[in-house]
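Input sequence (285 aa), recorded before submission:
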Amino acid sequence: MDGELGDFLRSRRARIRPEEVGLPCYGRRRVPGLRREEVAQLAGVSVDYYVRLEQGRGPGGPSRTKAGGVSDAVLDAIARVLRLDAAEREYLRAVARPHRRAAGGPAVPGVRPGIRLILDGMDRNPAYVLDHRMNVLAWNALADAVLGFDGTGVEERNLPRRTFLDPASRALYPDWDAIAEQTVAHLRLKAGHHPGDAALGQLVGELTHASADFRRLWADHLVKPCDHGVKRLRHPVAGLLTLPYETLTVPSAPDQTIVAYAPEPGSETAERLALLASWTTSRTG
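Predicted structure, token format:
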């Protein structure tokens, strides 16, 4: 348990006004949102317990589980008071009861040949595999035609680095602000599940130092998975592409996900992707 838990709790209680939870609000407050003692009261725990939790000192006493972590009942009560959504609840549990992995060496195995065959068979759908650090590990030909992965190094294939450090990303994504927020929210969720990952910590440190936009968004403690949605891309050849996407976890490698873009059949984007695929084939054939 470290400062991440306290920062997250403080950011979430700052969002809630006392009157929203039935508390009187007298006079002016030094900080926005609920006070620590108010959260403790509403969650049914002692003020000292909650203060110790938020300060990262670790609560003691009977509310701890046999494994030494904060109990489910306490976390559920705090989540209820702070009105956390499903992703935020998952993140709260992860940072309150971290299961640290080894800090050295890669935590993700290579992409299995069968997964690569699946990617290659998706000739109408740009698709690639991500690890928990949002590194692109493998991709198919259409994903390369859309996003340009071939001929790039590992660092250049990291999606947060691309988003915040490559100026071309702002031209690629018409909705760059939304993409940036989504990227940070997903990265923070993954960081909560891998607190001992040195490479992930270095990535966050690098982006915090190099990008004011990343630094601002990271300080907001946004938490949200990127499991499905729609992205708009402005391709230099194919033009504007509207791409719904889905993510699928690889059962044999839970830290890997397949991201597949699936435009509506017969849509303008589907036609443009087909033209892009044929143009790419003619160049390489």
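Checked by second reader. Residues 60-68, 102-107 have pLDDT under 50 and may be disordered.
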